[in-house]
């Protein structure tokens, strides 16, 4: 790790946001009901974001140059798009499962299989912070 005095405040903030985002994304991916394609995607993205956060705390961050901000923007966009996919995907699934759940004997029996598949407000909040961090890192060249 760099000497704390050598790492800019902007890099520290960016690294913190990336580390938390990567850990949370990975955690949410592996604690679900099953490892779907979306869960594997979020796990992979979480690992990449976490590694980016670690790199921001090392001398290797200089090799990223001005790419760090746009990378954060890209990660945030992917996380938010995945949450949108969950929002619209779960609505269709709930309608279909709710219909068959009622026919299979028991109201709400279909809801159990979809209950945890909606968007995660925590992930949206973290992705919004990452988006803001990426914008700041891209626009303000003085801190990196």
Structural notes for this entry:
The relative contact order is 0.18. α1 (9-30) runs antiparallel to α5 (121-139). The chain has 144 residues and is mainly alpha-helical. The chain is built from five helices and no strands. Mean pLDDT is 79; it is low at 91-115.
Number of strands: 0
Mean pLDDT score, rounded?
79
As a whole number of angstroms, the C-alpha radius of gyration is 19 Å
Fraction in helix? over 70%
Low-confidence stretches: 91-115
Series of H and E elements? HHHHH
Strand content: under 5%
Q: What's the number of helices?
A: 5
Structural class: mainly alpha
Sheet with the most strands, sense and barrel status: none
Q: Report the span from N to C terminus.
A: 16 Å
Question: What are the defining features of this structure?
Answer:
70% helix; 144 residues; 5 helices; mainly alpha
